[in-house]
Structures are given as structure tokens and as C-alpha cells.
Amino acid sequence: MKIVSVESFQRDHHLAVVRVRTDDGLEGIGQTSPYLAHLSVEMLHTVVARWFLGKDPWDLEALVDRFLRERYKLLGTVLFRALSGLESALWDLLGKATGQPVYRLLGGQVRRGIPVYGSSMSRTISPQDEADRMVRLADSHGFRCFKIRVGTPMGRDADAWPGRTEELIEKVRTALGPDIGLHADANGGYSVARAIAVGRRLEDHGFLHFEEPCPYPEIENTAQVAAALDIAVAGGEQDNSLEQFQRIITGRSVDIIQPDIGYIGGISRARKVAYMAEAAGIPCTPHCSNRSLLQIFTLHLAAAMPSISQYQEWTIEDNDWARDLYGPVPEVVDGHVELTEEPGWGVQVSDGFLSDARRRVTE
Description:
The protein is of the alpha/beta class. The chain folds into two domains: 3-99 and 348-362, Enolase-like, N-terminal domain (Enolase-like, domain 1, 2-Layer Sandwich), CATH 3.30.390.10; 104-338, Alpha-Beta Barrel (TIM Barrel). 41% of the residues lie in helices and 17% in strands. The chain is built from 13 helices and 14 strands. The chain has helices at 37-52, 60-70, 77-98, 102-105, 127-141, 164-176, 192-204, 219-228, 242-250, 261-264, 267-280, 294-304, 351-356; strands at 3-10, 16-22, 27-31, 113-119, 145-149, 181-185, 209-211, 232-235, 256-257, 312-315, 326-327, 336-338, 348-349, 358-362. Strands 4, 5, 6, 7, 8, 9, 10 and 12 form an eight-stranded mixed beta sheet that branches. Helix 5 runs parallel beside helix 6 (164-176), helix 7 (192-204) runs parallel beside helix 8 and helix 9 runs parallel beside helix 11. The relative contact order is 0.16.
């Protein structure tokens, strides 16, 4: 079995679907990492696809490793985003070739029902409105945990408006009560001192984890924050180097590691981070902040990896650019999501998306 074609379907700059076909008629569907799709598609066809053509998809993980070693001068976010599109399509293809869901190819089903937390992406919503919508979602979907956004991304201690973070922390906890878990995400917004101050306020209100308190390259600063606080500190979503993940984990810079399948270059490499976390005895909670196919990829990884044991991220925003992308879309019931026994990813990209998208093929 050999790879004979790689197609992309790009509707806008947010994402591109990838379809891979083999010489025996099999095909698999994947997706480049959300955002920068126009750059990812160019990288996919000019660099990634040409290298994989003619290769045997059963050598998937060995091929990914060899490709990255041979293209070492191009390592960066666009290359990894493009690679994730082809790599995820190959996992789907192998699942369909064997009649098995991807999570079985990843080692087997560790858990059936995957607990998810409702993840807010908004820093423009008022604290009261944020609290109100989380109460509604807890009632309607059974969410037992949520995440709020504090500070501003890479913000040098700035807030969306004065006092918003403190008010948000208090209002959300008061509205949801003591039995709902809460996380907070700073997106690298704080210095060490400010991160510790915000972290202590989160501790006072019973929050469970504090995500990216300091800018992600500053792993030493994040380690200082983690050492100073009792609340678990999480991070890693922006990183794509396995060596950097190893430094973060062994240096105990975080208490929870968060690889993003799209940013790191696919399931194969994200799984390696999950194994690192398991060996180190810390949880792995992959980053997954939108409603694209990345949700499905992340669920399969969570179903198979022992270290992915906590609440997993599930956006509560309606991303219009990901609407009607695929089906069936998993439902959150009683705070959990379950995968089916269908082969591959177990979903189909909609005909409407494919017909509206700009197609490009490398054969």
C-alpha cells in the first residue's frame, strides 16, 4: 500500500481539510491545525505532501520522525500545522483499513466516557454574563467543570478592563457554587509576581488549575509560579518540540502538560508527550479550543492514553467557521462525551464543506 495523492480543501483562512488516498483505493480524512490555513496549505503541498508520496502509511510514526529530521531547517509552527493535516488523515485511513476506531490503534480504549470542561474563549463577556451562561450549561449539559479567561494574552500584567479578573473569579464561583470545578487561563499574561497574586486568589476560590500564567517561552518563570502555588499550573499548548516538552516535564515547570495535536504535528507526537507525562506521574490535558475536527482527534487520544485522566477541554463558543464541517458531532451528556465504534475517526466531512472549499491536489 502506497500513498498516491494528497488533497486539501480550504474554505477560508481558519482551517483546511486533508484527504489522503492510496494505490489500493483507501482514503482518510484529516485537518490542518486551525488558523493560518492558507500558509499551512502551501506548506502541505510544496513540502510535506511531496515527501510522503509513494510511502507506506503503515510506517506512519517512523515516517513522521524521518521527515522532521530531514526537514530540520524548516521546523516551525506552519510546518507542524501542515504536517498535522496529513498525519491525521493517515490515522483515519489506517482505521478504515482495519475496521477499527483510531483509539484502538493508539493502544486500546482506556475510558469510554470522557469528562469534559466547558471552556470559555471570551475576554469581552462581562463577569455576570459569563457566570450566567455557565450556570445554564451546567443545567443543560451536565458540565461539572468550566474554564474562564483572565488577564490578557501575553499582556504584561494587563487586564481586559480594570478589575475584570477579580470580579470574574468571584462571580463565577458564587454563581456555580462549591461543587463545580473551575480552571483559569491567562494565556501567558502575567509576570511571576502578578501570576502568584492571581494564583492565590484562584486558590482562595477553590479553582483547580491555572493555565499559562507566564509567557510560554519563559519556562523558568512558570516553574517559579508552580513552586509558589498550591493550585496546579498547566501549560505546553504552544510548544511543538518534543525536547522542550521533556524539559518542561522533567524540570517540573508545570503540574499538567497540554500538547495541542494541531500545533505539535499530529497524534503521533502528542501521544509521545502523553507517555512522558505518564512516566513523570503528571496528568496530560491536551489543548483543544475550537469545534473543528481537532475535537475528534483529541477525544480519540484521550480515550486511549492513561495519563489523560482529568476533565478535557470542550469549547462553549460557537465558531461559525467550523459550523457544518463534519458529522455526527458528539454531544455532551452529563458532562461526558463518548466515541463510537466506527472505524477511523468515526465521522464524515460534510459534502457542503467540500463543495464550497478550494481544492488543491498533489499526486
